[in-house]
Amino acid sequence: MDKVTLTRPDDWHLHLRDGAVLDDVVHWSAERFGRAIIMPNLVPPVTTTEQAQAYRERILAARPAGSRFEPLMTLYLTDNTPPAEIERAAASGIIHAVKLYPAGATTNSDSGVTDMARCADALEAMADLNLGLCIHGEVTHPDTDIFDREARFLEERLAPLLERHPRLRVVLEHLTTAEAVAFVRNGPERLGATITPQHLLMTRNDMLVGGIRPHYYCLPILKREHDRVALIEAATSGHPRFFLGTDSAPHAQHAKENACGCAGIFTAPLAIELYAEAFDAAGALDRLEGFAAHHGADFYGLPRNTDTITLERAARDIPADLPYGDTRIVPLRGGTSVGWHLHTATPGN
Ligand code: NCD
Ligand code: ZN
Questions:
Q1: Is 335 a domain residue?
Q2: Which ligand minimizes its atom distance to the CA of 105?
Q3: Which of 10, 11, 227, 247 is catalytic?
Q4: Is 2 tagged catalytic?
Q5: Closest ligand 1 atom to the C-alpha of 264?
Q6: Is 328 among the domain residues?
Q7: What does each C-alpha distance from 256 to 30, 62, 176, 312 come to in angstroms?
Q8: Quick check: 28 and 272 in contact, CB under 8 A?
């Protein structure tokens, strides 16, 4: 198969940032995806419906002419999110999930949740209103090894949370371990999960052997080969609760190539192409459409897209760096190539 046509995919975990860089970031996703769940970890974070509405307008204004790319907004959960704010969010029609960052877990998570018990009322309101919770699933104790933080979160935090809130819909984001794959498989129907292209294609060896590669650094951090194999098996299995979420997380080149570099990999310019490469390598291109275009929409209770994209097996050079406001940004594979390219996209719905 040298060409594959699929229902236009959606990205169920995306960072677009804000301000001057929006024009340089949004178009990459808009060319490929129909919709995206937009992460709220701005500075300051998007904690109110009003802020989410204003942010959505700025994203819409940054779309290329004629684009129908639809940003699905989220709220940033804090220790103090009032249930009334959850009610406003659910009534807005533009907010599709609430994001839980354990405080200190990742980029711009300082205002995140310090103790889930403090959010119990907000989480019950979400369950009542069928507003889902997206979770960055890592514990943050300083004494927990960074490579164990996701696995520890599952039993220590996620299992009790699912038990305390038996009607809450939950997406465990950016799975990185075999343990997380097993947890989701054995979990209830209301538990879904996203998987990034970098975790399907790379391990910590790619980041650390032969030199340290800051553009491969993201959170949760890349893991071992047996974890990557488990993620490939999950993504290509056809299981409806695993779906695409790029976690494309742009940071300026100088902030990545730094003595204390930021976490986040910028994959938006080649995201669906990277997934095609991963599925192709696994001999599972026929499973890409379900993972990329059907499972997420079904889980979120949204209609599937009706237009299509076509990907072609042909190497495409990826520029070494790209404009990012008044700075530059290095995309994943910058200065090298990707084995698939976006051939055509049919007009929207
Ligand atoms: C994300 C970012 O930069 O906003 N970084 C990352 O490494 N994935 C935050 C996140 O999703 O953890
Ligand atoms: Zn993210």
A1: no
A2: 1
A3: 247
A4: no
A5: 7
A6: no
A7: 25, 24, 21, 31
A8: no
